[in-house]
Amino acid sequence: MFIATKSVTQSCVLSHEILDLLEVFRKMVNDCIRIGLQNNVTSMKRLCSLSYKQLAKYNVLTYYKLCAISHATGILLNRKKSIKRGREPRMPYARRGLLKSCYGFKIVNGTLKMPIKPGYYYHIALNAYVRQILSDPTLRPRSFTIAANNTVSICYSKEVEKRDYTNIKGIDRNLGNLSVGDTVNVIQYDMSGVVQIGENTRSIMRSVKRNDHRVRKTLCAKYGKRSKNRINAILHRVSKTVVKEAEKQRAAIAFEDIRYIRRLYQRGNGQARGYRAKMHMWPFAEIKRQIEYKAEWDGIPTIQLTARDTRGTSKLCPQCGKKITQVDRKTRQLWCSHCTRWMDRDIVAAMNISMKAGWSRVDHSKGVVYEAMKGNSGRVDPIILRVDAAKLGLRRRLEI
Ligand SMILES: [Zn+2]
Residue of 239, 248, 249, 270 with fewest CB within 10 Å of its CB? Predict the structure, then answer.
């Protein structure tokens, strides 16, 4: 048993007294950050003992003070992590008003009741979608966050039983597609729509000719937001389908580690600007985040392989384990001279990730996971299904 969390967001209209409260919360967070930086503190307990008395000047409920300290601790911890990784982060400072709390609130009859003063509650009406999600009795609301951009989000959790798995699906994330599969089945989701949206947005932004950074900033923010929403819609459809398929086939999901892949596309690496821009818009972390949280919610195990585990996954033949060569870079086809056949680079990678995950973690005597090794008998020929990610929602609607 473990606890899985999710959150849901809606827009709402905030009154002046709430906006004042958000501002007070922001100030408290900034006070705590200042105290934390002065004393070089990143633990919640220590920050609490240092700053609690200094927050006495704010006339708010005690648990909002605790939540402000906890929020500041999170910011300070992130800063420490960035410094450890060798980055020079900016001075942390909360600019926008916000309020978050895990204490004192209630959800009654489709409204969020949050205390402002002792015995005095402020009510925020929840919309039908949020009400429908929270109506599930197994869910427990954990906290709420109100932001100054007129949104309220509620975080909820449930207890999940981890499922057993008899199979592992390897996920190979590529710019133009997402290949998910094992040695028996591979589904390739065509994500060229995502690349297209990114490129269109870039060309729109480049066409803004007004030499005024304020105008450019507003326009780019508008089109950037639009493109992000459209891309996220596709990613959500794909991640949902991937998790559903894994659930159906009682499979775990394995990821390779490509966190530092953007280092390959830095300025001065000899690549064209357009190419680098395209590679920097590739949402490989977002699709992983979505699949991970959706899998966690359904109790599907996920396996994170290290970069060392998956070295050369798209260069080794899944059948004979020998190195295979890519003849033409554009077609992404690989030729294995040992097995004398052509293979798709992305499908090979997905198969190899699945096998590597099985090899390192599962009892492979069960015979469900194949190994990539010399002399593997029997031809490994997966069934390959190609799906257009942009039409996934459409297909579902037609099925209904
Ligand atoms: Zn081979």
Answer: 270
Decide: 251 and 168 in contact? Cβ < 8 Å. yes
Residue type, 263: R
Global pTM reads: 0.85
Sequence length of the chain is: 400
Distance 170 CA to ligand 1 centre (A): 19
Nearest one of 105, 137, 113, 26 to 72, comparing CA atoms: 26
Residues 55 and 380: their CA atoms lie apart, in Å, by: 66
Q: Which residues contact 83 (CB under 8 A, 6 or more apart)?
A: 89
Q: Give me ligand 1 centre to Cα 85, in Å.
A: 40
Q: What is the pLDDT of residues 46-100, one digit of tens each?
A: 999 999 999 999 999 998 999 999 999 999 999 999 999 888 888 999 999 999 9
- State the distance from the centre of ligand 1 to the C-alpha of 337, rounded, in angstroms: 7
pLDDT of 308: 86
Let me know how many helices (H) and strands (E) the chain has, helices first. 10, 16
Instruction: Tell me: pLDDT of 189 over 70.
Output: yes
Ligand 1: distance of its center to the CA of 347 in Å? 14
| 349 and 317 Cβ atoms separated by less than 8 Å | no
The domains of the chain are located at: 2-160, 167-399
Instruction: State both tokens at 320.
Output: 């004979």
Task: Please state, in angstroms and rounded to a whole number, the distance separating the CA atoms of residues 173 and 190.
Answer: 11
CB-count burial class (<10 Å; 0-12, 13-18, 19+) for 318:
buried
Sign of the four-CA dihedral 81, 312, 342, 353: negative
From ligand 1's centre to the CA of 321, what distance in Å? Answer: 6
